[in-house]
Amino acid sequence: MERYWNEEIECMSREDMKKLQDERLVAQVKHVYENVKYYRDLMDEKGVKPEDIKGTDDLYKLPFLSKADLREAYPYGLLAKPLSDCVRIQSTSGTTGKRVVAFYTQNDVDMWEDCVARAITAAGGTDEDVCHVAYGYGLFTGGAGIHGGSHKVGCLTLPMSSGNTERQITFMRDLGSTILCCTPSYAAYIGETVHEMGLTPDDLKLKAGIFGAEPWTEEMRRSIEKSLGIKAYDIYGLTEISGPGVAFECSEQSGMHINEDNFIAEIINPDTGEVLPEGEVGELVFTSITKEAFPLIRYRTRDLCVLSRKKCSCGRTLVKMAKPMGRSDDMMIIRGVNVFPSQIETVLIEQGYSPNYLIEVDRKNNTDTLDISVEMNPDQFSDKVKDMQDQEKALAVAIKTMLGINPKVHLVSPKSITRSEGKAVRVIDKRKLIDNPAK
Amino acid sequence: MSNVRQISVFLDNRPNQLKGVMAILKNGGINIRALSVADTKDFGILRMIVNDTEKAVDVLKDASYAVAVTEILAISIPDAPGQLSRVLDILGSENVNIEYLYAFTGASDKAVSFVIRVDDNENAANALTRGGIIQLTENDIAEM
Q1: I need a labelling partner for B144 at 20 to 30 A (CA). Which of A86, A239, B46, B108 fits?
Q2: Other CB atoms within 10 Å distance of the CB of residue B32
C-alpha cells in the first residue's frame, strides 16, 4: 500500500494545487521584487511589475534566471533575506572560478527536508528504517539534504558520506541498513564490492535505494536492484533550487513527482524561451515559490526533459518529470560533479597549453572516466620521458584542483587534434546515460 | 669537450607516426646515424643523431613536429665483453646519473658506439677522458 509523507499535498486536486501555487507565486514575486535588486532590475527592464502577476498563468511574463546570473550575482546578489535570518550555505560542485552558493533560512531547510521526507516515504521509508547516507557530505547538497530528510522521517540515520566502500558494507551489515542513499554509480560499485567480499544481498537488510545527482539508465537501475536486492528510486534536485528532493520517484518508477507546492516547473524551448505544452521535450525551468532566502524565479536548469500529468498509480497528483534526456548546454556530470569543457580550457590556457583538446568520458566498472588529450607545448618538449610525464601529472593536478575529480591527461603532438571549421568537437561522451527515447 | 647534438621528436602513440618523420627526413636528404625510440602509454620520443642537425630540425619544425635539440655524449668502445661495464663503472664512480643510453654501429666492426644522456655532460666527459674512453664528435659521427 502506498504511503505518503504529506498526503494532503501529494494527492491534492489539480485545482487546489493551482490555487495554492497562484497564491504563493504572487507573494513570492512581491517578496523578490522588494528584496532582490538584481531581479527587480530584470523585471523593470522587461516592464513587468509584481501587480502584473496574478497567478501561475502570468508566469511566462517574468524574466528568466540562468547560471550566468547566479555567478554574476555571487555571492549575495540574489539573497532575499538578511544574513541574520539565514542558517545555512550550500554550494554547487566544481564550477569555474566563482561557485554558485545558495542560502537557506530555517524555514527553507525545513521545506527542503520535508521534500526529502516525501521521497524517503515514497521509497517505503518509515521510522523503523536505517537510512544509510553515502552521498558526500559538505557543501554538496546530497549528504546534508538526505540526512535532514531522513531525520524528519525518523529513520535511524547513518551519516557515512562517500568512500571507504568496504567499511560502508561492514556498517551496512552490522547495523542493518535498510535504505541506501548515494549516486547510482556508487550504488553499483557498492553492489559489486558486496559480491567481491563474498556476500550476497541476503547478508544485508537493504530494501530500497534512493539514487540521484547524476544521470543513469533503466538498465543500470535493474542491475543495481539485482546486485543489492533492492528497489531503486530516482531523486532529482539542484542546489540552486534547494537540493535533492525537488522531484522524487514513487513505487511506479516511471518518472519523478515534482514537489509543486514548492517548485513550479515549466518546459520551454531553449532557443526562444517560449513555454511548451505538456508532453513536449524542452528545457526544464523552476520557480521556487516558498523559498525565503534564495528564491529563484524561472531558473533555467539546462536539463532537457518532459512533464506529464498522466494519472499515477501511486495516487499522487504531483506532476511528473521524466529523467532528464540531456542538456541544452555542454555541461557534463562526471562522478556526480558538474563539469563544463570551459573549465578545462581555462586550466589549459593558464598552464601554457593550446586550447585544443579532446575530452573523452566513459563509464568503466560503473565509474566515470575522464580522459583529456592535450596538445603538448613544443617549447616545453624534452627528450626525457620523465619530464614529459611530469608535465602530464602537473596538468592532471591542476585540472583536479579546478574540477574536484581526477582526470587522465594524455599529451599528443602539436596540431594533431582536429580543428573544425564551425563548433569544435571537444567532448566525446561514450557513456550510455539516457534510455533509448524510442522505447 | 666533444658534445654531440641529438634531435628528439615527440610522437603520438598511433600507427604511422615514425613513418611520417622518416618521410620528412627522406625528402630533406637527411641521413640518420643513430636512433632510438622511448615509448610510454601515451606517446613516444624519437631520439636520433643525423648528418645535418640544423636542416633536420628545420624540416621537422616546418611540419609542426615538436623538436628538441640536446647535447649528449657519444663514445666508441671495443666490441668485447665487459666494455660497457667499464664505462658504467667510470660514470658510477663519479656519481653520474644516466638518463638513457643507446647503441649504434660505427664505421668499424670492431667497435660499437653509444649515445649517453646524462645531466652533467662536463663532469661525465671529464670522467670518460680520464678513464681512457674514446669520445666521438659530431663530425666523427657525420663522417662515419
Answers
A1: B46
A2: 16
Task: Answer yes or no: are the C-beta atoms of B37 and B22 closer than 8 Å.
Answer: no
Of B8, B43, B65, the CB nearest to A411: B43
User: Using a CB-CB distance cutoff of 8 angstroms, which residues of chain B are in contact with residue A383?
Assistant: 6, 8, 45, 47, 68, 70, 117
Same domain membership, residue B135 and residue B92: yes
Of B53, B70, B87, the last residue of a domain is B70
Q: How many angstroms away from the CA of A377 is the closest CA of chain B?
A: 8
> Does residue B62 share a domain with residue B30?
yes
Q: How far is CA A181 from CA A326, B20, B135, in A?
A: 23, 53, 69
The verdict on a CB contact (< 8 Å) between B68 and A381 is yes
Mean pLDDT of the A401-409 span: 90
pLDDT band at A254 (very low <50, low <70, confident <90, very high): very high
> A206 versus A431: which is more confidently predicted?
A206
Residues spanned by the domain of B29:
4-70
Percent helix / strand / coil, chain A, rounded to 5: 35, 25, 40
B130 contacts: CB under 8 Å, gap ≥ 6: B90
CATH number at residue B22: 3.30.2130.10
Across the interface, whether the CB atoms of B42 and A376 are under 8 A apart is answered: no
User: What residues of A are in the B interface, CB distance below 8 Å?
Assistant: 376, 378, 381-386, 388-389, 392, 410-416
pLDDT at A403: 87
